[in-house]
Design brief:
9 helices, binds magnesium ion, alpha/beta, 191 residues, binds BIS(adenosine)-5'-pentaphosphate, five-stranded parallel β-sheet
Length: 191
């Protein structure tokens, strides 16, 4: 299974992926986590990425695409993976399709976690990651609405989108996520 999780900042993508890893036994690829690791390590990519992340802006594709394609080529991704935070733009989605097509693979399903803005802000204030400053958070939400939300239509047109209510306890939401994954598995068997 190759599954993408899409949602605004604080929607619970990382939280639900951690649970899905247990269920599906495939790696969790979070571009945000990869970038934060690079920033902490002070690599040239990390130094460049930090300038964008601290402003709530997307990191350039010249950094992201290489990072993701290298990770997707690793042996542990052969059976599948969970993509959290990638793709985030229509060009990134097209690039992902190309990377997977070259390996005769495809995206099996896309889960949208829908959460209203006031709840996102509540979660952000309770967490306090480096980029959880209210002003930066507002920019991350705007970036989601302008650059990432169009992906929902892109995947809906392919019949791959499951939109899930992201309000409730993490367990309640996970029950909805599991139901969506069961549908994706059914779809994959029919293809
Ligand atoms: P990224 O790390 O992907 O951040 P994000 O999309 O802003 O999302 P978050 O990680 O904040 O939220 P989440 O949806 O994972 O929610 P979580 O489970 O943590 O990206 C960071 C930056 O990296 C971007 O701004 C950009 O600069 C760059 N970047 C990354 N990918 C890129 C790409 N492809 N292209 C270009 N740039 C890229 O939950 C949030 C909080 O809520 C947690 O505290 C959690 O415990 C809590 N919580 C979770 N579920 C619930 C619940 N049901 N009820 C109550 N609280 C909950
Ligand atoms: Mg996350």
């Amino acid at each position: 299974m190759r599954i993408i999780l899409i949602g605004p900042p604080g929607a619970g993508k990382g939280t639900q992926c951690q649970k899905l890893v247990e269920l599906l036994r495939v790696p969790h690829l979070s571009t945000g986590e990869m970038l934060r690791t690079a920033v902490r390590a002070g690599t040239p990519e990390g130094v460049q990425a930090a300038r964008y992340m601290s402003q709530g802006q997307l990191v350039p594709d010249s950094i992201i695409v290489g990072m993701v394609s290298r990770r997707l080529e690793a042996a542990d991704c052969r059976k599948g993976c969970l993509l959290d935070g990638f793709p985030r733009t229509l060009p990134q989605a097209a690039t992902l399709d190309e990377i997977l097509e070259r390996r005769a693979m495809s995206v099996d399903g896309v889960i949208e976690l829908a959460v209203p803005r006031d709840e996102l802000v509540r979660r952000m204030l309770a967490r306090k990651r480096e980029d959880d400053d209210p002003e930066v958070f507002a920019k991350r939400i705007a970036s989601f609405e302008v650059q990432t939300a169009p992906l929902l239509d892109y995947y809906a047109r392919q019949g791959k989108l499951a939109s899930i209510d992201g309000l409730g306890t993490a367990e309640e939401i996970f029950a909805r996520v599991k139901a969506a994954v069961t549908e994706f598995e059914r779809g994959a068997r029919c293809r």
